[in-house]
Structure formats: structure tokens, C-alpha cells
Design a protein that fits this description.
single chain; alpha/beta; 49% helix; binds coproporphyrinogen III; two-stranded antiparallel ribbon; globular; 7-stranded parallel sheet
């Protein structure tokens, strides 16, 4: 860890802070001209595998926006490659896994002994942590077992998660073995990031909201809890994020993650009370709100801060990642507004 006293780390532990920390999922990405310039010469995967470039992209985005944390530039799917499942990004289609996992034999072939080959991500974390020192915390991340399994099984993005659920229902033991293998690799991957200086780890379970509470509890919660327990042993707080999770929040809290990410569909205070008011929450502005005019953006940010009511343990973020066409000026204005408004509110807590 490199900035253990930072606002972000304190907020993750639900400790008091001078103002609400803010960072944004996908804060480095296509909406930013500086990123598009680098992408003219390198593919997404080339940037991820080049620690100098990945660090530069991470640092540039955090500095342009003036946010309270830098999230390491990488991709959720990188561990698939070291497990023996190559993938590429095709324009307009998103990620494509060349031979998706469909049965027990495919799962048996997946490797769990090569997580060290992802060392380029830890190396990028080391460069970013060295650059910022105690000035700004670094967020490392990994995919949650369900969301990564869904990419492995579907072969890419999916609407109904048909193949994933089919495997889960018809071969629960094989499905569990897949999640187990994913936990082995992603835990080691994230631990390396903490050793390299990451202050916080975010676990992305972006697509878990497609599950019923019963299926989540039976097939997904145990392995996710195992992953989060391992990550917590590093000493870095863990943020557990998903979308469409209003019905799952109570169960997600059972993983013992320090912070639960909320998407924009649930009012922040309702989500917070569902996970028990003692822990911390992150969120939850609709990413599409950043396409509205300044007054609307500010009103919506204010509404979230009002619902948080200066209670320790709120990290401001979007409910999901920044979209590619988002105006950079609006993102900068949001960051400034949240920082200034929450500073005043913290100085004078509302009744
Ligand atoms: O937040 C950050 O600034 C860090 C960078 C980051 C990326 N991917 C870079 C990226 C993070 C945290 C991710 C996580 C990720 N990757 C998730 C979970 C987050 C979420 O949004 O739910 C998922 C599901 C992926 C898999 C993935 N990678 C998808 C679905 C896509 C989109 C494909 C497309 O064409 O829109 C990507 C590509 C990707 N990863 C981009 C970036 C900046 C797109 C830009 C590019 O192609 O250069």
C-alpha cells in the first residue's frame, strides 16, 4: 500500500474524511483525447502489456480529472489468457473469446499455475504508486468469478447468459470448479497488485445482476466470499461492485467486502441501509447523466450527496463506467463540484 492515510482508504474503512472522495470507473478511456491519441499507435492489449504506457494512461487520466484515486489501466479479461483462453477485441463487438468453455473437459484444461505471467499489471501499479507516492492512492482490480466465468462460457458479451446458466444448472460441480480455478488465479493476480503498491482492490462483478437471489447464494456467493477473504488478508480494503444488484445487495454484503458498489437504479441511502449502515458504499450517479447540462449534473450529484448525508463511508462514483462519447469537460466539472460541495457539507453536517 502506498497511500494508507488517503481519503479513499479512510472512506473504505468508513472513517471520517474532510470531504467525499471521488473517482470514476473507466476514468481512462476512449472519451479522453489523450487516450485516443495513444490508441492510434497501440491496441488495448498492447497498452495493458506495456507497464510504461499503462502507467502513463493511468496517471494522465487521474491528473486531468483531479480525482481522489488512480485506477490502474488494465482489463478484466487479462487472466483468461494465462488460463489458456486467448481472446481479442473486435471493433463494435467487444471481447471475443476464441474457444469458449462449454463442458467439464474444457474446465479441466484451464491452467491455474501461470498468474505470475500477469506481472506486467503489477509492474504498472509499481510505476503509478512510485509516481504519486502518498499523494494519491492506486486502485488495483480483478474480475469476480461469476462475471469472468460468464465471458469464458458465452465467449463474449451476452444478453441472457444462456450457456452460463445452462452449465450452472446442469453441471453445478463443474461450474463450481470453474469458479474455484478463477479464484486461484485472480486472487494471486490482485495480491501481486497490492504488493506492488495498490491501496485498494475493486472486484468487478458487472453482470451478476442477471442472477436470482437463490442462484447467487447457491452457486456464486461461496467462491466470491473466498476470493474477497483472500484479498482482505493483504490489508487492502476491497470494493465489491456489480450492476442491477438491488435484490442481491444483502447477499453481496455477506462476502464481507469493505465497500459495496451501487449502480444508479437504487437510491444511495436505500442501498446503504440494505447493506447495513455500518459499512461503506460507492456510487452511484447514472453515467448517462454526464451527457446532461451542467445544472442537471450538479443537481443529481447534490441529490446523491444529500442521501449520503456526510456519513463516513461514502465514495462518490458513477453507477457504472464512463461511456465513450462523454464530454470530458462535464466529467471534470462533476469532480470539482463533488469535491467542493462535500467539503462544505462536511464542515457543517446536515441534521
Ligand atoms: O476504469 C479504468 O479507467 C481502468 C480501465 C479498465 C478497462 N477495462 C479498460 C478498457 C477497467 C476497470 C476495465 C474493466 C472491464 N473490462 C470490465 C468491468 C467493468 C465494467 O465496465 O463493468 C469489463 C466487463 C471488461 C471487458 C471489456 N473490456 C469490455 C466489455 C470492453 C468494451 C469493448 C468495447 O469495444 O466497447 C473492454 C474494452 C476496454 N477496456 C476499453 C477500455 C478503456 C475500451 C477502449 C479501447 O478499446 O481502447
Amino acid at each position: 500500500m502506498s497511500a494508507p492515510e488517503s481519503r479513499l482508504v479512510r472512506a473504505c474503512k468508513a472513517l471520517p474524511v474532510d470531504r467525499t472522495p471521488i473517482w470514476l470507473m473507466r476514468q481512462a478511456g476512449r472519451y479522453m483525447p489523450e487516450y485516443r491519441t495513444i490508441r492510434k499507435n497501440y491496441s488495448l492489449i498492447e497498452i495493458c502489456k506495456n507497464p510504461q504506457l499503462a502507467a502513463e494512461v493511468t496517471i494522465t487520466a487521474a491528473e486531468i480529472l483531479g480525482v481522489d484515486a488512480a485506477i490502474i489501466f488494465a482489463d478484466l479479461l487479462l487472466p483468461l489468457e494465462v488460463m489458456g483462453l486467448p481472446f481479442h477485441f473486435s471493433a463494435g463487438e467487444g471481447p471475443v473469446i476464441e474457444s469458449p468453455v462449454r463442458d467439464k473437459a474444457d474446465i479441466a484444461k484451464l491452467r491455474t499455475d501461470s498468474a505470475a505471467d500477469l506481472g506486467y499489471v503489477a509492474e504498472a501499479v509499481r510505476l503509478v504508486a512510485g509516481h504519486f507516492g502518498t499523494r494519491l492512492p492506486v486502485i488495483g482490480f480483478c474480475g469476480a468469478p461469476f462475471t469472468l466465468a460468464s465471458y469464458m462460457i458465452e465467449g463474449g458479451a451476452s444478453r441472457y447468459y444462456l450457456n452460463t446458466k445452462k452449465l450452472m444448472y446442469s453441471q453445478p460441480k463443474a461450474f463450481d470448479e470453474l469458479l474455484h480455478k478463477l479464484v486461484c488465479v485472480t486472487a494471486q493476480f490482485a495480491e501481486e497488485q497490492v504488493l506492488a503498491g495498490a491501496d485498494v482492490i475493486q472486484v468487478f462483478d458487472s453482470w451478476v445482476g442477471c442472477l436470482s437471489v437463490g442462484d447467487y447464494r447457491e452457486h456464486v456467493l461461496p467462491r466470491t466470499t473466498e476470493l474477497i477473504a483472500r484479498l482482505k488478508r493483504t490489508g487492502a480494503p476491497v470494493i465489491y461492485f456489480g450492476t442491477d444488484t438491488a435484490t442481491l445487495l444483502l447477499s453481496m454484503k455477506e462476502t464481507a467486502a469493505d465497500v459495496i458498489g451501487l449502480d444508479w437504479r437504487i437510491p444511495l441511502d436505500e442501498g446503504w441501509s440494505l447493506v447495513g449502515n455500518r459499512g461503506a458504499v460507492q456510487g452511484n450517479l447514472d453515467p448517462v447523466a454526464l451527457f446532461a447540462d451542467r445544472a442537471q449534473i450538479e443537481a443529481r450529484a447534490r441529490e446523491i450527496l444529500r442521501r449520503a448525508n456526510s456519513r463516513p463511508g461514502h465514495i462518490f462514483n458513477l453507477g457504472h463506467g464512463i461511456l465513450p462519447e462523454t464530454p470530458v469537460e462535464n466529467v471534470r466539472a462533476l469532480v470539482r463540484y463533488v469535491q467542493e460541495y462535500s467539503q462544505k457539507a462536511t464542515a457543517k453536517p446536515q441534521a
